[in-house]
Each structure stands twice: as structure tokens, then as C-alpha cells.
Design goal:
With 200 residues, the protein is mostly beta strands. It is 14% helix and 40% strand. The chain is built from four helices and twelve strands; from the N terminus they run βββββαβββαβββαβα.
Length: 200
């Protein structure tokens, strides 16, 4: 379980394909605090640490993860948003994030707004999935590349988020431009409510 508050935008230092799996080796400031089998969110995808080597660690993404996320598009040198799993005795500064990416979205536009930025993303709309809560709602929560954000100007298949300078600098949002593919996780509470409503 995560909160969508990114700890670090870390660099990919190696990528290794093994059959349908992809091993990602990352370099970050808290490697010495990690343990084998620990869960870490990578652009919103929960992955398990499988090895640690001095100042780097490695995780493995299976084919289903690669199909539903942007991890398969990563290149050595790219920045990835990292968050370790949430401590249950701390504050929930973002929202409840599972680390289970639902689908990808495409950045349509980035525009500056007097010191901040607005990003518009579009995603494939599926009516059946929407009835199960795979949608965005005005002033609701959404996770983009692992970042907990508030939705504005939502439509059936698109939404905007406002990014403050801190988030822009300390996550990989500064690398996102029109055409960039990002990971989405819709709000789990909305999914449960939608599912229960369907049984009424």
C-alpha cells in the first residue's frame, strides 16, 4: 500500500530482458535501507526488490505489468518515481494507492500557469470499465506515474492535473511532454463504490 507521495525520482542504470520478464536496476539514495522482498512503487507500479548491489537494486516486471504500464518504454538514464510502502503509523498525505496500475494514458498538453503547470492526459475509455470505477471525477484523486494528484476538468476520457514547482522538480513530471505515456491508477474507493452499486 502506498500514498502517492514520491520519495525520489531515481535513475534507471540497467535494463535486462529475460524471456518475457524485464529486470530494472535502479540507483537511488535509500538503497542501503532496502531489503530483499520489499515492495517499492516504480511510476506507480508495485515491484519487489529481488537483489541489492552496493548503491543499486533490481526489481522484475512480468509481461502483464509491461502490457499495462509504461515500464517497457523505459531507457537507461530515464527517471522513475519511487515510493516505499506506506507506514501504518504515519500520516496519509496523498490517498490510498495500491501500486496496481490500471492502464496507461497519453499526455496531450503541458501549459505553464504563472509558476505551476497544467497537464492534460487522455486515456482509452471503456464503458464497462467506467461502470466499475475506472474513471476520473472532478476534484477526485488519481495516481499518475505514482504521484497522488487531484483531478480537474475531467471528461469521459481525459482529465487535467496541476503540478506545483516542488512536484515538477522532484518527480519525473519535468520529463513529461505531449506524447509521453504515463501510468494511471484510478481511485480504489471509487472502484469499490461502483462495484457495490452494480449489485443494487
Amino acid at each position: 500500500m502506498f500514498s502517492g507521495i514520491v520519495e525520489e525520482a531515481a535513475q534507471v542504470v540497467a535494463l535486462k530482458k529475460e524471456q518475457s520478464n524485464l529486470h530494472l536496476t535502479m540507483k537511488c539514495s535509500f538503497v542501503n535501507e532496502l531489503k530483499i522482498d520489499q515492495s517499492v512503487s516504480h511510476n506507480g507500479v508495485c515491484l519487489t526488490v529481488v537483489s541489492i548491489d552496493e548503491d543499486t537494486y533490481t526489481v522484475t516486471a512480468i509481461q502483464e505489468t509491461l502490457d499495462k504500464s509504461n515500464l517497457g518504454f523505459l531507457k537507461v538514464g530515464d527517471k522513475v518515481n519511487l515510493e516505499r510502502s506506506m507506514l501504518m503509523n504515519g500520516r496519509l498525505d496523498g490517498h490510498i494507492v495500491q501500486g496496481h496500475v490500471d492502464q496507461t494514458a497519453v499526455c496531450q498538453e503541458v501549459r505553464e500557469a504563472d509558476g505551476s503547470w497544467y497537464y492534460r492526459f487522455s486515456y482509452e475509455f471503456d464503458k464497462e470499465k467506467a461502470q466499475q470505477g475506472y474513471i476520473t471525477v472532478e476534484k477526485g484523486s488519481v495516481t499518475v506515474n505514482g504521484v497522488s494528484l487531484t483531478v480537474c476538468n475531467a471528461t469521459d476520457n481525459s482529465f487535467e492535473v496541476a503540478i506545483i514547482p516542488y512536484t515538477y522538480e522532484f518527480t519525473n513530471f519535468h520529463q513529461i511532454k505531449a506524447g509521453t505515456i504515463v501510468n494511471l491508477e484510478f481511485d480504489i474507493i471509487g472502484k469499490y463504490i461502483s462495484r457495490m452499486m452494480n449489485f443494487r
